[in-house]
Amino acid sequence: MTKGVKILIAAAALLFVGSLVWILLSFRDSDSTIVEVVQNNKVIYTFDLSKEKDRTIRVNAPDGGWNDIKIENGTICISDADCSDHTCVKTGVLRSEQIPIVCLPHRLVIRYADKRDS
């Protein structure tokens, strides 16, 4: 094996390990309990999941659609929606600061609040 091939293999291995570490860190649970519900780039609700009682909130979209947001046992998710693909419902509960729950048809995002704001 030539020196160039060895360097290429080492670089590929380093890139693979770095990618794996980034993925694992992205999917770890958040330490934050403050979440924001954002629609059309405006925060419409802010919740502290550690203090919030179990409930379901319906958020109406300007186009006439809706999303049901469920808070239960310190977690938050979109439990039902009238959008066509239900990707937001299939996302499940909000876990990661890097991966929000998004409903594109209704321009709705559920995300952890920026730590600088809380």
The total count of strands amounts to 7
Instruction: Label the CATH architecture of the largest domain.
Output: Sandwich
Assigned CATH class of the largest domain: Mainly Beta
> What fraction of the residues are assigned to beta strands by DSSP?
25-35%
What composes the largest sheet? 4 strands, antiparallel
What is the CA-based Rg, rounded?
Answer: 19 Å
Description:
This protein has 118 residues and is of the alpha+beta class. The protein folds into two domains: 1-30; 34-112, mini-chromosome maintenance (MCM) complex, domain 2 (Sandwich). The model has no long low-confidence stretch (mean pLDDT 88). It is elongated and about 65 Å long. β3 and β4 (66-72) form a beta hairpin. Helix content is 24%, strand content 35%. Strands 2-1-7-6 form a four-stranded antiparallel sheet, with no helix packed on it. It has a three-stranded antiparallel sheet with strand order 3-4-5.
Task: Provide the fold topology.
Elements: H1 3-26, E1 34-39, E2 42-48, E3 55-60, E4 66-72, E5 75-81, H2 87-90, E6 101-103, E7 108-112
Antiparallel strand pairs: 1-2, 1-7, 3-4, 4-5, 6-7
Question: What's this model, at a glance?
Answer:
The protein is an alpha+beta fold and 118 residues long. It has helices spanning 3-26, 87-90; strands spanning 34-39, 42-48, 55-60, 66-72, 75-81, 101-103, 108-112.
Considering the chains and any ligands shown, give keywords for the structure.
alpha+beta, 35% strand, three-stranded antiparallel sheet, 118 residues
